[in-house]
Amino acid sequence: MSDMNSPFIAAFTVFCYLSASGLIAARLFSRAASEQIPRLAGLGPVLVGLWGQAWLLYQGMHLGDGGINLGFSNAFSLVSWAVLVLILFSALSKPVESLAILPLPLAALAVVIEATVPSSHLFPPDASWALRMHALFSLLGYRRWCWRSRTTTCTVTTPAASFAACRHCRPWRPCCSR
């Protein structure tokens, strides 16, 4: 990495990811409602860590002559970053931040590996478009994004007959268990 601030940013990103993982785990396993940590307290460090990791990825992957460094450490960091971005965007509308308890320490490990282990697998600037598309879809294939249908009906015996009128159901759960 070419910048002198990179070790500081890497350490701060690792701190953000590990503290966010601890906060989310503490929120998940807290018993009393009065002791519960707010959702945004766990998601805030994730967002700051994602910015730091994106900066480190840009510094580590972008080469001046138009080439891209897709070595192991950079690819591992890029995939972990993409997984966390998808979890963060999902957590903005659904309470799924507990899914990030394991990927956050793995992303911290990816940042440490990216900062300490040099990788040198260069993607040539004159590569064909087919090779570029292959690399793009290979990296995106690590995380599948699937949407559930929102057209199911609720099986709860309530006066409301439709899914939209049921106050127990949420859009991310086709039917509640009550």
Can you characterise this structure?
By secondary structure, the chain is an all-alpha fold. The chain has a domain at 6-129. 53% of the residues lie in helices and 2% in strands. It has helices at 6-29, 39-61, 72-93, 103-116, 129-140, and strands at residues 68-69, 122-123. A two-stranded antiparallel sheet has the order 1-2. Helix 2 (39-61) packs antiparallel against helix 3, helix 2 packs parallel to helix 4 (103-116) and helix 3 packs antiparallel against helix 4 (103-116). The longest helix is centred in the first third of the chain and has 24 residues, at 6-29. The model is unreliable at 143-178 (pLDDT under 50).
Q: Order of strands across the widest beta sheet? A: 1-2
Structure annotation, total helices: 5
Please indicate the percent range of residues in DSSP E strands (runs of 2 or more). Answer: under 5%
Largest sheet: 2 strands, antiparallel
Decide which structural class fits the backbone: mainly alpha
Features:
2 strands; mainly alpha; 2% strand; 5 helices
